[in-house]
Amino acid sequence: MILSNPTGDKRMPFTKEEQGEFLRRVAEIQDGSGKSFVLAVYELLDRLEREAISESDPCFACHRGCGLCCSQLVSCTQIEWREIRDYLLSLDQQTRYWIQRHLADFAGVWSRYIAKHPNIVQTPSDYARVLRHWVGKPCPFLGDEGECIIYPVRPIECRTCYSTQLCTAPVGSEGVVIYPFAFQKIASTVLIDRQIQGQGGRPPVLCSPLLAWLEISPI
Ligand code: SF4
Ligand code: SF4
Q1: In which domain of life is the source organism classified (predicted)?
Q2: Is 214 near ligand 2, meaning CB less than 6 Å away?
Q3: CA of 85 to the centre of ligand 2 (A)
């Protein structure tokens, strides 16, 4: 029973004005804290989620160590990946060493998968098939005790998923309740816009699985 972002509705569930207001608040956070754009977006998203959740008052079952939702393929934009890398590289040497050894187990996993399934990610329906292939396989950042080892910089996909009862499957549990928080969609949109701007308006690789980033830009 995952309370998650949007609705499958392809229309923008928010107005340009709301997006402008979101960006204004992101800039305010950046001015006040010196945070990067991505981290300021995360901070605002977390704040808005907390407010919305406390208003609607659902009782979530999610807790540290409950990582069933982390056993699937998670993707992020390149600008989010840079934050993850910077975060990991900023950790103390001993922790970094442990994480590098942990990640070594995942080295080559994505390229072997792509070699076995050439041309699999050409269309959105292919991507749905890829997601199905990875259900039940752990995210590379899932720690030994079911915790997220990059929790402060986990990607936006991981920040918009809640459940009111313990999930019994990584995805597609029965009785899914959707909270259509428009600001979650705004947050994804502004990150993708920023990614496009950073690539000079060229058609970008917007999002890739964490496993793919790990191979493109190892830690
Ligand atoms: S969404 Fe489900 S699997 Fe993930 S932390 Fe919450 S209860 Fe656990
Ligand atoms: S990045 Fe963290 S929260 Fe997201 S799927 Fe991986 S372990 Fe779970």
Answers
A1: Bacteria
A2: no
A3: 14
Q: Whose CA is nearest to atom 6 of ligand 1?
A: 62
Query: Ligand 1: which atom is nearest the Cα of residue 166?
Result: 7
- Please tell me the distance from the alpha carbon of residue 206 to that of residue 198, in angstroms, as a whole number: 11
The burial of 109, by beta-carbon neighbours within 10 Å (0-12 exposed, 13-18 middle, 19 or more buried), is given as middle
More confident call, 202 vs 143:
143
Dihedral over Cα of 95, 100, 106, 111: its sign: positive
Ligand 2 atom showing the smallest separation from residue 139 Cα: 6
What's the pLDDT band for 176 if we cut at 50, 70, 90?
A: very low
Residue 25 confidence (pLDDT) above 90: yes
> Measuring from atom 5 of ligand 2, which residue has the nearest CA?
70
Question: Torsions phi, psi of 162, nearest 5?
Answer: -135, 160
Pick from 143, 137, 121, 140: nearest CA to 72 = 137
Least confident of 40-49, 148-157, 190-199: 190-199
CA distances from 213 to 72, 101, 113, 182 (A): 15, 17, 14, 28
Checking if the pLDDT of 194 tops 60, the result is yes
If you measure from the C-alpha of residue 17 to the centroid of ligand 1, how many angstroms do you get, rounded to a whole number? 33
Closest alpha carbon to 40 in 49, 50, 27: 27
